[in-house]
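Suppose you are handed only these lines of text.
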Amino acid sequence: MAVDSFAGKLAVVTGGGSGMGRELARQLAAQGCSVAACDLNADAVAETAAMARAAAVPEVRVTSHACDVSDEAQVLRFRDELLDVHASDHVDLVFSNAGIGGGESFITSRREVWERTFAIDWQGVYYCARVFLPLLIASGDGVLVNTSSVNGLWASLGPGVPNSAYSTAKFAVRGFSEALVEDLRVNAPQVRVAVVLPGHVGTDIIANSLRARGLPEPEQMSDAQVEELIPRDVQAKLIGAGLLAEDASAGDLRQMLAQANADFRDKAPLSAAEAATIILDGVRSGAWRILVGEDAKMIDAAVRAKPEAAYDYAELFSALAEEPAKGTPDR
Ligand SMILES: NC(=O)c1ccc[n+]([C@@H]2O[C@H](COP(=O)([O-])OP(=O)(O)OC[C@H]3O[C@@H](n4cnc5c(N)ncnc54)[C@H](O)[C@@H]3O)[C@@H](O)[C@H]2O)c1
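From them, the structure of the protein bound to nicotinamide-adenine-dinucleotide can be written out as follows.
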């Protein structure tokens, strides 16, 4: 079921205050689609709505809503608000995009941090599906687009970098979405599902994830907050790797966090706008599985080719390591 055009449709975008969610809202509106965008950060999503309206034709309505997707009551309120302001009894597209990182270790991360990440990244997608599926069915031609991650294919960020809560949630999002493929075919064929699997996309997700946990910007963190985020054992590893001075102060750690966010955003192979275009092209083409970025395609292929070697990194990426050598001239 390809979509010819998004014009005249109504889309819900969660996490619309930043990154891919903001760009999805802007691009949908520019293509004639009305948008109801929500975010934890009400000011940021209001800014998105203003940007999206500025680039849209007058018939397009873009609204912003404050909503924590991990709280079902707030998702229900968001639904009621948007149906009211858009004067609609259905929605055509739902982009369940909101997400945060955190809870890297099941062993050492604080339990509430692990559970907050899981609640947003999995429960948020689950509640949005519960709340919006009847409205997608009512559309007669609906698409549910759930954002997972390469960490929904591969539960690690590489050697020495566990990513427990996030990967657990993103595997759940992928499993849920894949299970819906047949369920929808059988029980609601007027709706289809697509699962989005991005690799590294340049966004402010590091800073936004800290904010979603109630922490201030890195520069404003107390010594205790920054020491908890980068605990002694991690500091020791960073010192060992030459990434941190032995006598690093809390100020140096604050600076390191701010730099990590800036580098994640500015040194990514894909921008949020490019990623949103890939997602929308995928939805338009009728794809149920949308890999975003060459890194995502590479990880998908590597894990499929050698599932037993998924966490034996040298073996998993051995084919990749050989690739550049092929093009290296003999000395
Ligand atoms: N950036 C990447 O490299 C990358 C890679 C793979 C997957 N993803 C996924 O893509 C999605 C978008 O990420 P992004 O990189 O654009 O991040 P981002 O931080 O730029 O945007 C995410 C938005 O979601 C909002 N949000 C967080 N918790 C929320 C909640 N409980 N309720 C409502 N809104 C909430 C944030 O405030 C933020 O505005 C996320 O699900 C993320 O896990 C990102």
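What can we learn from it? Strands lie at 10-14, 34-39, 62-66, 93-96, 142-147, 191-198, 201-202, 270-271, 289-292. The longest helix spans residues 111-139.
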